[in-house]
Amino acid sequence: VTIRALTFHGKGDVRVESRPDPTPPDQDGAVLRVERAAICGSDLHLYHGDLPVPETGFAVGHEFVGEVVEVGSAVRDFRAGDRVLCAGVIGCGACAPCRGGHVVRCERRQTRVFGMSGALPGGQAEAVAVPGADHALRRIPEGVSVEQAVLLTDILPTAFYGAKGAEIRPGQTVAVIGLGPVGLLAVECAQLFGPARVLAIDRIPERLARAKALGAVPVHADRAAETVQGLTGGVGPDSVIEAVGADATIQLALQLVRVAGVVSVIGVNMNFAFPFPMPLALMKDLTFRIGICPVPELWDELVPLVQAGRLHPENVFTHRLALSEGSEAYRIFDEKRDGVLKVLLDPSR
Amino acid sequence: VTIRALTFHGKGDVRVESRPDPTPPDQDGAVLRVERAAICGSDLHLYHGDLPVPETGFAVGHEFVGEVVEVGSAVRDFRAGDRVLCAGVIGCGACAPCRGGHVVRCERRQTRVFGMSGALPGGQAEAVAVPGADHALRRIPEGVSVEQAVLLTDILPTAFYGAKGAEIRPGQTVAVIGLGPVGLLAVECAQLFGPARVLAIDRIPERLARAKALGAVPVHADRAAETVQGLTGGVGPDSVIEAVGADATIQLALQLVRVAGVVSVIGVNMNFAFPFPMPLALMKDLTFRIGICPVPELWDELVPLVQAGRLHPENVFTHRLALSEGSEAYRIFDEKRDGVLKVLLDPSR
Amino acid sequence: VTIRALTFHGKGDVRVESRPDPTPPDQDGAVLRVERAAICGSDLHLYHGDLPVPETGFAVGHEFVGEVVEVGSAVRDFRAGDRVLCAGVIGCGACAPCRGGHVVRCERRQTRVFGMSGALPGGQAEAVAVPGADHALRRIPEGVSVEQAVLLTDILPTAFYGAKGAEIRPGQTVAVIGLGPVGLLAVECAQLFGPARVLAIDRIPERLARAKALGAVPVHADRAAETVQGLTGGVGPDSVIEAVGADATIQLALQLVRVAGVVSVIGVNMNFAFPFPMPLALMKDLTFRIGICPVPELWDELVPLVQAGRLHPENVFTHRLALSEGSEAYRIFDEKRDGVLKVLLDPSR
Amino acid sequence: VTIRALTFHGKGDVRVESRPDPTPPDQDGAVLRVERAAICGSDLHLYHGDLPVPETGFAVGHEFVGEVVEVGSAVRDFRAGDRVLCAGVIGCGACAPCRGGHVVRCERRQTRVFGMSGALPGGQAEAVAVPGADHALRRIPEGVSVEQAVLLTDILPTAFYGAKGAEIRPGQTVAVIGLGPVGLLAVECAQLFGPARVLAIDRIPERLARAKALGAVPVHADRAAETVQGLTGGVGPDSVIEAVGADATIQLALQLVRVAGVVSVIGVNMNFAFPFPMPLALMKDLTFRIGICPVPELWDELVPLVQAGRLHPENVFTHRLALSEGSEAYRIFDEKRDGVLKVLLDPSR
């Protein structure tokens, strides 16, 4: 028996192909029939050929939800038929940090992302194998829709993590650079910390309009520095969340932030020699944060907010396509065509 | 020359009387012509005769804003003509904590409230003398209305202080007991910390409706325990803000709060032997907070929130009366007549 | 087959008796052959008849270490032959908080202490049954002695928890009231937070001398208030750790602590109507903490400190007796005879 | 009348010269007769010609204590005859942050260091003018020696700031890179936060021996990475304090620190394009801090620790020379000759 999966074949080349039906990777693992999967900005790093991959042909994607169809003998908390979301980032599942949901701190250094290599095939597919099911999965909570659940696998926790890392306190001003799906969710999450103002920076009018609708002050990227200076009396925002990952936008964050402020980077930057301006940072008394989000660690905080209607992450989905349209979906997302913000794939089609 | 002032003459007896024109109490002091003053719930403790006072006949009131008419020779930051708000609680103004705005920690133990004795006459009057003007006053910030400014002198900071003390984190559930003016502002301030839910407890339908309009879940006080248990799956809210000050409502807070939770008391309770249930607290792993709000310490956080329209404290004013109607104003407020929530007095009338 | 156990038969009556050999209480449980057990101050609450017990005749004691002799079929992390310490306080072992070591927050409300009723017999015995072994036990870490391990089961975490709850920051002054074994360990743990001074209050000269040897300033309880006032320039200590549990000592803590300070109670007080002085607390802007220590949650912090020789909790043991001397051991401990501080029992004798 | 001062004349050239007797720079200023001054590692940046200076000939040095000989008319807290220490970094002294001691956050952007340009001549001189005396100065506290006071002007607060920024919690492992005077004080300050271990990295045997005497584990810089890996089971220290400022040592810090750890840089690095390894930081979930220490903000914490004998910063002084030997003093310090750690100058000689 086989399944259809979106597979990676080198720069700019993802295709729907057949793959063998997955089985639980070990006694702690499970297999999901995928209901929905989304394409993430970090999938584009792979798509652009920016990441070293020893092989090709593996299934891609780390944002997915589905139904458990099979579990290993040692899985305690899940059984066939459970509808679950799966953390895009997982650890060994057995060490103390992993048990507590802190998968990034996995003591066995097995922190991995689905769909980035053949060692852990991804979930933009009809089915996917999940190791350490008891720690990677969570039942889709009552009151959380499938589309919301997909966003709980990665980018909503990531956005929230960026907002937490920014240490926003009530009455402060925070800037968010980049209003793609993660950036817009970061605007929404920043509002949870009671800032007086969220300054939202991008150059795409529709994205600026979305940020404004979320209560932010839209700032056009072409005059970001002057505008932000003006809005903050020359002082700068108390914190900046960077949600692009380009060298230029990280530099902008460092330039904008006020003295004794915080820059929290959730954009993925792969520069091993990013030119960090030390004397500027020194004079700024800077706190600079960058990291992969420990997804499961954040569910307890985020699920009640989604259930209560305080967060509406599902608004970022602009395109809902069939898995069979996967190649085109990547192109649309990569080229930012058609007002695309976030693409959802349906593996049943 | 004389001014009119609302003065205290014993239990239930406040009257408008003439008093000598105030002069700056020392070289660091100032005199304000009062534009607006409000009656506070803690004024009722005096009105009810619950506070020991060595004398009577002094002007009452600690919530007021006005125009500076005279300053002492050593005042640096203010001059005649400045429109200012005045902290209801002040310290010596000279020690390190006072300079930093932490007046409650005054090292000379001179933390005092206006209008509670003849030593520091209050501001429900045409004019009032303010010691330590550089530390007690703040210019009414641009974008802050007179009515908002009055609330910045005491109850908005108090409500915010209670919410901070509750240590609310995003996604949590917080309960607010008592929806008088302070309690309703506590609901508004609690929302700044990103809770999934604010459970607002009172028995007056109009107050419950106001809390609901602020995004809270209204809970009738007559069935508070069962309702809150039900809404929290038997666990209890992560924190409780108590805004009444009665023994029974503080007991309710201790009963409701979840294990490892926080009870933050901003209601004023004068019981020197409040029957604290130690074994319950022990099993709950409790943090219990109670204190006078350090008003000036909180302005930097609150002013931008008011300016940005994130907080609308002015909605608590239901009655706007002339100073000449002061006796009646106290009766209305005390008896909770006419749907009263908060009373504003105009000393020019 | 039977084992010998120290059993409770009513006020002042504990005896060594035979009991059936324990078996694992469930598939997640284990049985330990006890190597050493200690008597805790909270055992005296039982001994004094202060706790309601539906029955008598059960084995007492919640501080013990030993060797695993049998495990249930679902135990993952332990096997026969492992030398382990066991948390004196346990939860269900299955809910999310319990898995993370936060047993006090057990969602199934199964937080229990060994040896306080027949439902969970204690470990002052030759052998003891432990439910939820994977979460209650920890292998005795390399570099930790048996006697240190016994203290990691309860009173060292409790003392550390009290010090954490006191929120001590470098340069501050902290007072510790009561220099029994928990109080002396609290002095030692308080030093981890960099206070300028630890003021240690008791009336037993030998205990004061021990505190002094730990770097504290000894203060005689008979003149605690004046001495502490004098030493702090009339301001009071920034925080107070109460390690007695009597009404009078908790009142002393509230009286001593400075404005905006913290009182952290680790003494066990069973007064359901402790006369809490609200007006005093109000003027003090108080944070008051009281709770049962979540033992396993603290092991990750404490074990490295013991291994590195930063903490020497074993110094509290003054008496090492045979289990057969258990009745006498309780009397010595209860009557504070013979300079007793902490009693260790050897079940092999 | 003139004074003697150590003045800067270009790379490697400092000389004792005569300068006019200083007068208070404004009505808020004061003049000190300097009792002792120290040479700081950051003075070497100037000495090496690494800092842009528009002019030469100004007096150098920002670490000094002395006696007030003259005050401006508006100075409140000091008068002639007071023996004081002076913050090496000052702000405008008038804005809210400056009043609270947070001079780095000066709203008028007047954060400046003494002796780095002719605009604010330094204190390696017989006398020095101090603007904003009420905020820059503090009376030398009782129980603090002159040499300790000199260290309170800059490097002890800096070391403490680095340790605070490292967010050390009890039981953790912290590494300190560089055991010059600031690094050794950072070792001492790190101990205030209760780490299980401080790993102290340098290559000079005498400095490693000093760190060991402070309770640290000495680690030779030539095999730092392997040694630290070995000591931490391959995990890395929870935090790293960098006290050198070289590119290589900052890279080492980033390499050593564990996942979810903190790198706190107190060494001064002037590279505007430091090659920051973003992918490494991303995988490490890094917090990176760098900043100028807000000296006066830290006095309240440090003074009691020095008074209580918990900190002995004066041990870093290895050389006590006359001001007239200033040129030679710089050479010794720069060349790390004669086992030099820190040089104290006596302007009376």
Can you walk through the features of this model?
4 copies of one chain form a homotetramer. With 349 residues, chain A is α/β, with parallel strands linked by helices. Chain A is 29% helix and 26% strand. Chain A has helices at 41-47, 96-99, 133-136, 146-152, 155-165, 181-190, 205-213, 224-231, 247-256, 278-284, 295-307, 326-335; strands spanning 2-8, 14-20, 30-38, 63-71, 83-86, 89-90, 112-113, 127-130, 137-139, 173-177, 197-202, 217-220, 239-242, 262-265, 274-276, 286-290, 317-322, 342-346. In chain A, strands 3, 4, 5, 8, 9, 17 and 18 form a 7-stranded mixed sheet that branches. The two termini of chain A are 18 Å apart. Chains in contact: A-B, A-C, A-D, B-C, B-D, C-D.
Radius of gyration of chain A: 20 Å
Low-confidence stretches of chain A: none
Distance between the termini of chain A: 18 Å
**Tally of separate helices of chain A:** 12
